[in-house]
Every structure is written in C-alpha cells, then in structure tokens.
Amino acid sequence: MSKQLTDNLEFVLKKLKILSKDRKVVLSHYETFELVEELREKIQESLEIVKK
Known about the structure:
Blueprint: H1 3-19, H2 29-51
Helix pairs in contact: 1-2
C-alpha cells in the first residue's frame, strides 16, 4: 500500500473520531460541514490512488 494512501486513511480515521460519540467538543454546523468536505476529498484522493 502506498504511503499516501496510508496517510489518507489515517487522516480519515482521526477526523471521524472528531465526529463520533467519543469527541471531546461539539462542533458547529459549519465546522462539521468543513470536516465532512475534507473527508470526502481524502476519500476521493484515495480512490484515485487505488484505481491507478
């Protein structure tokens, strides 16, 4: 597995924890939307890596 793909997956896992029940703070709607967009970008990037 490529380093970039591994980094992307670790990033997604870390950010999903922020959205989970285990989070330490509550995010505003805006912050939540921004975080979801970041996650979508990383997943899209990861899919492109896998398709190559």
